[in-house]
Write a structure and sequence with these properties.
With 84 residues, the protein is of the alpha+beta class. The protein has a single domain, classed as 2-Layer Sandwich (NE0471 N-terminal domain-like), CATH 3.30.2020. A 3-stranded antiparallel β-sheet has the order 1-2-3, covered by helices on one side. It has a 3-stranded antiparallel β-sheet with strand order 4-5-6. The radius of gyration is 12 Å and the shape is globular. The N and C termini lie far apart (26 Å). The longest helix is centred in the last third of the chain and has 15 residues. Helix content is 27%, strand content 33%. The protein has 3 helices and 6 strands.
């Protein structure tokens, strides 16, 4: 199972992520396109409060908003392949 080991919030609702397999890069969260519980991430203070859930290896924010590390890894890997 892929786990996130480091995260850093960036401007523009993006995250720099490092996974436990060594893969790293920038993930665009795009809260404005996700809607629902993700709308609260449009507040920079909330977005910048991102942490890693040590039990599940995912990124999470106050209020129980989280993202699946496997999905993030796959999306980021597709972007790298597409850019090549």
């Amino acid at each position: 199972m892929i786990r996130i080991v480091q995260v850093k919030p960036l401007e523009g609702y993006r995250l720099w992520i490092r996974f436990d397999d060594g893969f790293e890069g920038v993930y665009d969260v795009e809260p404005e396109h996700r809607g629902g519980v993700f709308d609260q991430l449009r507040d920079p203070a909330v977005f910048n409060a991102v942490t890693i859930n040590e039990d599940f290896g995912c990124v999470e924010w106050p209020g129980g908003v989280d993202l699946c590390p496997m999905t993030m890894h796959e999306e980021m890997a597709r972007q790298v392949v597409g850019a090549a």
